[in-house]
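Researcher: I'd like a structural prediction for the single chain below. Treat it as a standalone chain; there are no partners to consider.
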Amino acid sequence: MTDRFTPRYYEIEQALRARIDELSTGDSLPSDADLSREFGVSRMTVRQAFQPLVQEGLVERRPGKGTFVGDKSARRQATVIMGFSHEARKKGREPSSVVLGAELRGATDAEALALGIGKGEEIVSLRRLRLEDDVPIVIEAAALRGECRKVLGYDLATESLHQALRNEGIMLDRGRATILADRAGAEESGLLDIAEGDPLLVERVLIYDDSGAPVECTESRYAADRYQLDVDFVVNPER
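Model: Treating it as a single chain, here is the predicted structure.
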């Protein structure tokens, strides 16, 4: 694999992750102005470094008060897009992946509709088995727009897909998820080491970049007894 330029915001992001690991929930972090001076970059670059940390819930931005370490509890909030590897490490577990397939191919009708492209248009197709401490947790099947093809040059068994996208200048911003239930078929049974017919938690996600364009649609099929989501909500006063 050829050498790649490491964006400055990514270097700062990694430095902040290291600091957060040494801090506790609620501890304050330096201001954007202080970090801008420390790293010799613009405040915009600092804000770009914070973006994935905010999305993962690792930090909280409180207007007028500052930036603080977020809730470091183990469970994922359903309102946060979080990479599998970061989520596993947050729980104190070691993530790993097995690539089941990685290729360029034509989009199916459903993929084309989700990604806003033509039927049969080129997409990146990536299927991985994701594990925590060598225990299989989820089978992920991702479809990405063709302009994401450079991620196929990464070792996606050991590297984060979302970090690869950021390295290539594709900034993920928001998404929409649908949660449903299913039962394991023969393939899920073998890969997840569960019985055929066992329950699965299925998450279908569509993720947009910072320009509002759909970039990735993914179906994740979890062994139901090995994963859970926390959901914050408000009560409808008319109920």
